């Protein structure tokens, strides 16, 4: 089967871009001296040991710019203004007007800004890394791209034509305009599977974490890697996209059965991190999706509210089970739902003037996801004058001010909001105190 020329061209251009990006500075990542984070480009040869690195998994609430590197549709991009303009003054790929929760947690933990996994040249991982991807779900099927099969020889010939390092390509799962599973092609029939990508699912993020683990073991040895991974804090936010846009294959499932599948997939990833040495976990339950400007505009708030309640209850039960099953498993279960709901019900108490409308968007409540004018052909949008007055920046995502308040509560919050530990406590716990 001959590979279509247009597909080969797309593949080659994409691979050229990814190799180009690995050799140049990433245009979407800024050296954030304004918040006291140090640029760590001088760490090219020496691993700097930290007490607790931070590894981040999740969706658009945590994505620092990983989606900049994939040719997804504009609904899963935020690398255009006015995103980022309040703090960074450029669009970094964060779905807000400035910093997001992992940025603030890193600041409180005295860590540098945790970069996206695909940041050019960042291969140290001593501070941790962020795998989150806008649009991601716990289920692989959530926002999954199309799959095609091609002959490996056809692909290889075109890589040779471009003078790309085939051995390097074939050893790596590359994300670009398409995703290439070189590691699972069938040698006997020379078949390669190529899948177009919309978002990097949680299980795919886990694959990249395993690659980080392998790189660390190769560079610093098993003992040092084990200590680094056991000291690290692992932060997760997932489930919104699974609930709000379920894949059609699940249409005949009851809501509870579907939620159980989501939670089971998430649990599998947690156990994989635990198996690698992780012991300190942070999870946000889901915010009240029925209160977002998008849900208000679409008038589907009641259904979303029921699903979110079911999901949060199931997730809480599962974490309690894991605590009993996994020796040394420590966790912070942040009540994101209550924190957001409290601010929506009592905005003035927290310094907000507007909690029903988004700062950026169009239509009623500015509930059309049109911020920036680059999504689904919607060029028109409105932008508020003072984002700090708004809880929501666009119709899905909070503003930098809201994120900062949430992060502060995660860091120093009481047991009623964070469960077993707040993040400050988790970061202070050393591996020698943990059961490994």
TrEMBL record:
Belongs to the 'GDSL' lipolytic enzyme family. Keywords: Coiled coil, Signal. The keyword Oxidoreductase does not apply. It holds the Pfam family Lipase_GDSL. GO terms for molecular function: lipase activity. This is OLC1v1030174C1. It comes from Oldenlandia corymbosa var. corymbosa. InterPro entries: GDSL, GLIP1-5/GLL25, SGNH_hydro_sf, SGNH_plant_lipase-like. Residues 1-25 form the signal peptide. Gene3D superfamilies: SGNH hydrolase. Residues 294-325 form a coiled coil.
């Amino acid at each position: 089967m001959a590979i279509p020329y247009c597909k080969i061209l797309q593949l080659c251009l994409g691979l050229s871009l990814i190799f180009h990006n690995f050799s140049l500075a990433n245009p979407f990542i800024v050296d954030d001296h304004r918040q006291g984070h140090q640029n760590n480009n001088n760490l090219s040869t020496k691993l700097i040991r930290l007490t607790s690195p931070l590894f981040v998994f999740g969706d658009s609430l945590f994505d620092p710019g990983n989606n900049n590197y994939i040719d997804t549709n504009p609904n899963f991009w935020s690398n255009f203004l006015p995103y980022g303009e309040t703090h960074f003054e450029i669009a970094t790929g964060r779905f807000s007007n400035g910093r997001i929760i992992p940025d603030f947690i890193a600041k409180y933990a005295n860590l540098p800004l945790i970069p996206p996994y695909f940041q050019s040249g960042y291969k140290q991982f001593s501070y941790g890394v962020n795998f989150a991807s806008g649009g991601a779900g716990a289920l692989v099927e959530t926002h999954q791209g199309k799959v095609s099969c091609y002959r490996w020889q056809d692909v290889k010939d075109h890589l040779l034509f471009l003078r790309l390092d085939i051995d390097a390509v074939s050893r790596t799962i590359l994300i670009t305009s398409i995703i290439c599973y070189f590691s699972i092609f069938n040698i006997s029939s020379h078949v390669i599977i190529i899948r177009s990508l919309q978002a990097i699912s949680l299980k795919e993020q886990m694959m990249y974490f395993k690659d980080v683990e392998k790189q660390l073991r190769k560079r610093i040895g098993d003992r040092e890697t084990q200590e680094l991974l056991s000291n690290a804090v692992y932060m997760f936010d997932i489930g919104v996209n699974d609930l709000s846009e379920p894949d059609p294959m699940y249409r005949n499932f009851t809501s509870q059965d579907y939620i159980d599948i989501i939670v089971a997939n998430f649990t599998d990833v947690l156990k994989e991190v635990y198996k690698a040495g992780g012991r300190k976990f942070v999870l946000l339950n889901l915010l009240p999706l029925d209160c977002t400007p998008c849900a208000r505009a679409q008038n589907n708030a009641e259904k979303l509210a029921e699903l979110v309640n079911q999901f949060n209850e199931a997730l809480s039960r599962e974490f309690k089970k894991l605590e009993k099953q996994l020796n040394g498993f420590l966790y912070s279960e942040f009540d994101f739902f209550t924190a957001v709901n409290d601010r929506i019900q009592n905005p003035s108490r927290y310094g907000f003037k507007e909690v029903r409308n988004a700062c950026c968007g169009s239509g009623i409540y500015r509930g059309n996801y049109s911020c920036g004018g680059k999504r689904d052909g919607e060029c028109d949008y409105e932008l508020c004058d003072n984002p700090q007055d708004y809880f929501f920046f666009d119709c899905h995502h909070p503003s930098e001010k809201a994120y900062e308040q949430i992060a502060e509560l995660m860091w120093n919050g009481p047991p009623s909001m964070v469960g077993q530990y707040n993040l400050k406590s988790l970061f202070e716990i050393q591996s020698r105190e943990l059961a490994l």
